[in-house]
Write a structure and sequence with these properties.
By secondary structure, the protein is α/β, with parallel strands linked by helices. The protein folds into three domains: 220 residues, Alpha-lytic protease prodomain-like, CATH 1.20.1510.10; 79 residues, Cation efflux protein, cytoplasmic domain (Alpha-Beta Plaits, 2-Layer Sandwich), CATH 3.30.70.1350; 87 residues, Cation efflux protein, cytoplasmic domain (Alpha-Beta Plaits), CATH 3.30.70. It contains eleven helices and six strands. Helix 2 runs antiparallel to helix 3, helix 2 packs antiparallel against helix 5 and helix 4 runs antiparallel to helix 7. The longest helix is centred in the N-terminal third of the chain and has 33 residues. It is elongated, with a radius of gyration of 29 Å.
Length: 391
Amino acid sequence: MDFFIRFCLRGGDPQDPDTRRRCGVRSGGIGIALNLLLFLSKLAAGLLTASIAVTADAFNNLSDAASSVVTLVGFRLAGREADEEHPFGHGRMEYLAGLAVSMLILLVGLELAKSSAEKILRPESVDFSVVSAGILAASIGVKLWMFFFNRGLSKAIQSPALAATAADSLSDCAATGTLLLGLTVGHFLRLPLDGWLGLAVALFILRTGWGAAKETIDPLLGRPMDPELAADIDRIVLGHDYILGIHDLVYHDYGPGRAMMSLHAEVPADGDLLEIHDVIDHIERELKAKHHIETSIHMDPVVRDGRTEALRQQVAQLARDLDPCLTIHDFRITAGPIHTNLLFDVVAPYGFCLSDAQVRGELTQRIKQLSDRYFPVIQVDHSYVEGRKTP
């Protein structure tokens, strides 16, 4: 297993498009060969025993072979360089390939469910064969190998398409195991289980297809940044001089190894602009080198004098009192002869129990209890990172 994974990686960077393309193509080639072998073996066993369940399992492997073809082609297309028509590259082809695979799986599952239902309504005798049972048992071993191989490779390059392929292999093991057990029990107890077993296999296939579809649709629609990645970005950015805090982190996924990100970095208003700009440039290069993310950082100058910092902490505590998940950033004050403006943004999670207007209203009321001279100007933001709190 380790040999094959090393053979695919060849010591390359897992997020490098060429490495990912090589892994996807080789995984697809192995999947095509093994699934075609299993299809022919099970088809022969199904014809030998006249079993709709075994035949259904054979065509499940044929669909897996077709899925491997789609995966192979998808990885090759995803590895193409950016061009005039696709300036962000073709990385999302990997997700589209996974979506096509899931659609094929769902189609096969529906067809097999239909055939199995007909067999339940009009049952026919099934001939038990030791050879057929041996083929099914060997198939379980092959699929287990494919599961561990694709799972290991998907973890190495963090590929949802290969993770879906691994899950498909594991569900095939369960389906074929159920089929083998049911045929054996049905033979010795003389029970017409063939149609029911075919239906069970079809349900396994449909469940796998639905899970694979969800895994590929989410990144296409746009999903929150991985919390572990967000935490590492926080660590990198905040680890540099002049950076007081970060917020408004927005992440765009154009395929594995092809991402763009923007964020706001709070810097001291009285700092040296040229030095701060040099630090920001260094951070952008560091994020690209480590995480393959093209980053644009907006500098937010903030004043951290005694009065401003004391008021900021008071308002931050009021936000936490309203709900512990609320945080603030971009806090600044402008003093006038009649009143003092308190300008800041508050971050609320999606699906928060209060509307944006209610959050503004509650915080305004609580701030005015500190002093009638305070006039809050509040902007409500929503985090693009699941479970992330603004430092």
